[in-house]
């Protein structure tokens, strides 16, 4: 590896980074991470900090999971790659597909289509939803409905069903036939409703109204995150997703549960849909399936959808879709090892306990700091702090203020993530009580410093 002077001199000079302005990043070079162990990361200057971001919602098992590393190394020695297109397969992919149908049996998932990550998985679910109706003789069902504030990746399909304009505006026009309804966001919603259950009912009615307006026979699927992640950790009321399931069933619309973030324990259960007692038609998974150690994902398929494809004799169910790295043997091996370790440790109880600790600790900070407008979470290790300059008007803080909070938290030993004016926290699910308290303390100090 080149020496530190070379790396610092060329930081952001030849790379364009995701989710950032190239000029701004060149003028304010990103933090360079060169090492990691446990729940801590180390930058090029040797500063060690707790990773309260968990990589990007995905490093559930921390950075020292030897079984995953060994599985990757062993698979590289045995079969580093072969195509997963029709006509060839590999043993690791076969074993993983079997594991996943057992893992998600309560959700009714019986088949897997492997991808390279979350955006690929969402794209695959959208395509399969359209093809499902096409195969059944309803080719007019092409539209998609989704929630405002929802996030579903960066492909054209995923960006089209995304409910936040910052992921859309620069790339429009996007996929036609994608429509959005209000999400149950208690802190900010068009109904000015503060009761979660009432708000959930209003949003469910908005879904009914949109279906009626568009025509049920034109809609392929409704896609949602069981807990909205990048949109600001928006937790729906318990009745909302079951109401959505019922509405979709009554109108012949598929329900896609985007579990890229919420899968494998982050909410305190193995899936977000299971948390609400819902069986979707399709699920997108990625991120924690390998704990971030290898790019990998899958679209999971229910019995009803699988039966439609597998019983077809017309040829309409031929899947003309896939990726070079679909069913990558190294990714599959990493996933098998990751699932085994995730189950062995059973990260769910710690995710729930530490999530409650983090949520309640930040709620306590809201009584102390006027910059905190809202704290959201309480379902596993998904937490958000919404920063405002005026609590009464709920005015978001300026970007420079949010950036200063991130910088001060980092100086005090914790890496956080800022999107707009919202702090997002998603530490590894193996984090300790002491490290969780340090996250709370670092944010406390950061807010105090910025306010003064």
The whole-angstrom Rg is 22 Å
Count of alpha and pi helical runs: 15
Side by side, the strands of the main sheet go 4-10-9-8-7-5-6
Give the structural class. alpha/beta
Q: Distance N terminus to C terminus?
A: 41 Å
The low-confidence parts are none
Topology, number of strands: 16
Q: Describe the global form.
A: globular
> What oligomeric state is this?
single chain
- Summarize the biggest pleated sheet: 7 strands, mixed
Determine the strand fraction and express it as a percent band.
15-25%
Q: What portion of residues is helical?
A: 25-40%
What is the average per-residue confidence, as pLDDT, rounded to a whole number? Answer: 97
Can you walk through the features of this model?
By secondary structure, this protein is an alpha/beta fold. It is built from 15 helices and 16 strands. The chain has helices at 4-10, 22-27, 54-57, 66-78, 91-103, 118-135, 156-161, 196-214, 240-251, 272-275, 303-310, 329-345, 348-366, 399-411, 433-451; strands at 33-37, 40-43, 48-51, 109-115, 143-147, 178-181, 219-224, 254-258, 282-285, 297-302, 372-376, 383-390, 395-396, 414-415, 417-419, 422-425. The strands form three sheets. The protein has a seven-stranded mixed β-sheet, with helices on both faces. Strands 11, 12, 13, 15 and 16 form a five-stranded antiparallel β-sheet that branches. Strand 12 and strand 13 (395-396) form a beta hairpin. Helix 4 (66-78) runs antiparallel to helix 12. The chain is globular. The model has no long low-confidence stretch (mean pLDDT 97).
